[in-house]
Amino acid sequence: MNKMMIVVVVAHLTAGVVQAAESTGYRKIVGVGCHIRNDVCFVTLEGSAYGSTLGCSSTQARWSVESTPGGMKNFSLITSAWLAGKEVDLYINGCLGNWPTFAWANYR
Fold first, then answer.
1. I want to staple 30 with a disulfide (CB 3.0 to 4.6 A). Which of 44, 80, 81, 82 is the partner?
2. What is the predicted pLDDT for the residue at 69?
3. pLDDT in tens, 35-52
4. Region 66-76: what's the mean pLDDT?
């Protein structure tokens, strides 16, 4: 009985976290860059702002290239996609300061 209660409580508490994440949908990459004072890089996407369900609405996603697992790989992939004229779909799952950040990216 106690195990069932724990499972129900955990499922209930994590459901809001899963629902808060959002996909940008495939969009044109407008720009890519990194700050010189810290390890934060960013990608600007065409279209309307995203991330409002997480409290950080913008057309620019940011991430740390050093502390985010795969941070530098994501920077390289996004830059390559930008230069090749590809579109990207970001799965927004949180905020880095006032900007959305993402868990994964798809390209086409």
1. 44
2. 87
3. 989 999 999 999 999 999
4. 91
CB atoms within 10 A of CB 66: 11
pTM (two decimals) = 0.77
Rg (CA), the chain: 16
Q: Are 63 and 49 in contact (CB under 8 A)?
A: no
Overall residue count recorded for the chain in this entry: 108
How crowded is residue 6: how many other Cβ atoms within 10 Å of its Cβ?
10
How far apart CA 54 and CA 103 sit, in angstroms, is 13
What domains sit in the chain, N to C, each tagged with a CATH number? 22-107 (2.40.50)
**CA atoms within 13 A of residue 65's CA, in its CB half-sphere:** 19
Query: What is the Cα–Cα distance from 28 to 12, expressed in whole angstroms?
Result: 36
Alpha helices in 1-108 (DSSP H): 2-20, 71-83
